[in-house]
Protein: Coenzyme A biosynthesis bifunctional protein CoaBC
Organism: Aquipuribacter hungaricus
Amino acid sequence: MRVVLGVAGGIAAYKAATLLRLLRADGHDVTVVPTASALRFVGEPTWSALSGHPVATDVWTDAHEVPHVAIGRGADLVVVAPATADLLARAAHGLADDLLTSTLLTATCPVLLAPAMHTEMWAHPATRANVATLRGRGVVVVEPAVGRLTGADSGQGRLPEPEDLLLQVRELLAGGAGPDRDRASTGAGPTEVPVEGAPAGVSLTSVPTGDLAGRRVVVSAGGTREPLDPVRFLGNASSGRQGIAVAEAARDRGADVHLLAAHVEVPLPDGVRTTRVGTAAELHAAVLDAVAAADVLVMAAAVADFRPDAVATTKIKKSADDDGAPVLRLVRTVDVLGAVSHARPHPGLLVVGFAAETGDETGDVRSHAERKLRAKGCDLLVVNDVSGGAVFGSEDNRVVVLAPGPDDGPAVEVAATGTLAKRAVAEAVLDAVVHTLAPS
């Protein structure tokens, strides 16, 4: 395959030399296109020797071959590593003031950008807007790694390791998108892909990469905790795995994700804005603030239904001469899902609820879920059967996604999964979201 390796002017340019060697070892014909600033970090002789091709940064070298057009047109993949904040801005705005940005404008193949910069630059609204713009055009922009940056700084902004970038390259090239195919972006259409955690031979239809690009998605995850006293609380067994899987999947599909995290037992994801909450009331306030400008709300958090009517200011102690236990009076917490569904901040907000249900003498899981869907007023309800303690804390899940039926009729089943890894379930839920959303 013909790969163009763009290198922007950042300290991480030295890692691109290792990526170049890996690409050559993989059998690819690699043309390196550095910026002038990149050559201040790694010189032209290094790139030429490792690639086996001459290196230029401007459009005037070998002008008779029209390199600013020919290089992009002839490539099967363009990779830029590192992609600095400046490079992302120029690419997002269609500037073409050197050979690399000109190549990006003329490339008809997939484009992979691997950002590397200080954390503050990556988190800046200008950079986030540029990334959203690029992803909206089908460009694959990978999330920077978290770790040591220049000097003593650390945080998100580190260039992913060359071995990890090579895996991304292999995945894109395996898609078969090259210069001979007529395509406007990497999101050319659905493909059948194996899903992690699915049984052997089972695959799910994935929607195109970037199908949530430009969308703002709010996801709640984990279990709320209602304090009894300074050291005790009422809580639940939610680990937060499913909600965090939804947040990660939405991020990887191009969304600008805001995660509202209650108590979780797994690491918080990189590349998303995160707000920590404790109680149902705190979650309610955070949701109202976050959804004001959101396109989608996914309420995967397990919200406590009850709280003590009074919270002791000191630890409730056992008495040596009293064998009894304190009697607690519980009151209802705010119904976050129902409150937001019925009083939406704007009509374009799509609300997705989660229902962990068990059957009882009044009905089975499905009948309880249908009643909840009508009562809550949400657009989609993700239902899982938690009888016997299933699902909570597990690596796997099994769900049915319901939508309101026409004319107040029975709910419509829009998706169902077998027992899959929670990330695979998250993808199925987001497939339903994408097909429900109005065009942007």
User: Anything to note?
Assistant: The domain at 2-188 is CATH 3.40.50.1950 (Rossmann fold).
